[in-house]
Structure formats: structure tokens, C-alpha cells
């Protein structure tokens, strides 16, 4: 069965995010004043072909921990849905 | 009123994604074989302080078009919810 996983990997709250700060400055320069904070991370879209949703979840969890996220500095979250 | 916008900026389908290809190769090296495709883009979390959800939507739309996405090569989508 085919599933699509959308994974978000974001810098942890305590970690400085210079890319986000740059975008915040860019927004002010565009005249957009009412944005309080911007944080930038990665969005990963994975297509999996596994038996069921539990297997998809397990595989995505493993992928996040071993490959996609640096757990010292980043948090991850994901959504899985049938393709 | 405070809102949080989660914005995904992804390379368009026709555009090569070398970062995604690298992750796919990494997955194979980890022994994970049943992933068909990986694409990597940005996930942006913005905190806005605006009057209502319509205003938030307008602001996020403008931000995506003017600053966050390169519309020649990237697509964007977003979700807005109260903080």
C-alpha cells in the first residue's frame, strides 16, 4: 500500500535560527511589521510502499531518527496519509 | 489576534531535487528499500499578530509570493491556526 509522509524538521526552540531572522528582516523591509517570529526548517515528502500505516509510521520514525533530524538541535513531526 | 502559519515550500514536480536524491540513497544504505521517492523543501513557521484569519491569510500569501518561494521553481502551501 502506498503512503505519503510529510515530515517537518525544525530547529529546537532554544537554538538560534539565523535563516529565520533573515526572513523576519526581509519582511520588515517589505513593510510587513506584524510578524513576531519566523523559524525555518525542512519539509520532507516521502513516498513509501509498505504493508500498512503502522509499518509506514515505524519506517518514518526510524528515518527521522537516523537520517533526517539531528536530535541535539532539531525536533521532528510528521503526518502520514494514503497516497 | 495571534496566529501561527506553517508554510511548506517544495521544489516543483518537474524540478530535479538532488538533496532528496541524496536522502533516498542514504535510506538505501540504511537498508530501507521501500521508499519510492523523497523530496525536500522548506518548512517555515511564522507567528503573526493580525486582526483576523482573513488578514493572516492575506499576509502569508503575500509573504510566500514576494519572499519565501521562487515561483518559477517552487510551489507553496500553508496552514493557519490560532496561536
Question: How would you explain this protein's 3D organization?
Answer:
Chain A has 83 residues and is an alpha+beta fold. Chain A has one domain: Phosphoribosylformylglycinamidine synthase subunit PurS (Mth169, Chain: A, 2-Layer Sandwich), CATH 3.30.1280. The first copy, chain A, is 34% helix and 41% strand. Chain A is built from two helices and three strands. In chain A, strands 2-1-3 form a three-stranded antiparallel β-sheet. The termini of chain A are close together. Chain A binds chain B through residues 2, 6, 8-10, 20, 23, 26-27, 30, 32, 34-50, 59, 62-63, 66-68, and chain B through 2, 6, 8-10, 20, 23, 26-27, 30, 32, 34-50, 59, 62-63, 66-68. Strand 2 (35-49) of chain A pairs antiparallel with strand 2 (35-49) of chain B, so a sheet runs across the interface.
What is the makeup of the main sheet of chain A?
Answer: 3 strands, antiparallel
The gross shape of chain A turns out to be elongated
Helicity of chain A, in percent? 25-40%
User: What do the pLDDT scores of chain A average to?
Assistant: 95
**Which regions of chain A have little confidence, pLDDT < 50, spanning 5+ residues?**
none
Secondary-structure element string of chain A: EHEHE
Please identify the structural class of chain A as seen in this structure: alpha+beta
Chains forming the largest contact: A-B, 34 and 34 residues
Strand order of the largest sheet of chain A: 2-1-3
CATH topology of chain A: the name is: Mth169, Chain: A
Distance linking N and C termini of chain A: 8 Å
Taking Cα atoms only, what radius of gyration of chain A do you get, to the nearest Å? 16 Å
Amino acid at each position: 500500500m502506498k503512503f505519503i509522509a510529510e515530515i517537518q524538521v525544525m530547529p529546537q526552540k532554544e537554538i538560534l535560527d539565523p535563516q529565520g531572522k533573515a526572513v523576519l528582516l526581509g519582511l520588515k523591509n517589505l513593510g510587513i511589521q506584524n510578524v513576531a517570529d519566523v523559524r525555518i526548517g525542512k519539509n520532507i515528502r516521502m513516498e513509501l510502499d509498505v504493508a500498512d500505516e503502522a509499518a509506514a509510521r515505524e519506517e518514518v520514525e526510524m528515518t527521522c531518527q537516523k537520517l533526517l533530524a539531528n536530535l541535539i538541535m532539531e525536533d521532528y513531526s510528521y503526518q502520514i496519509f494514503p497516497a
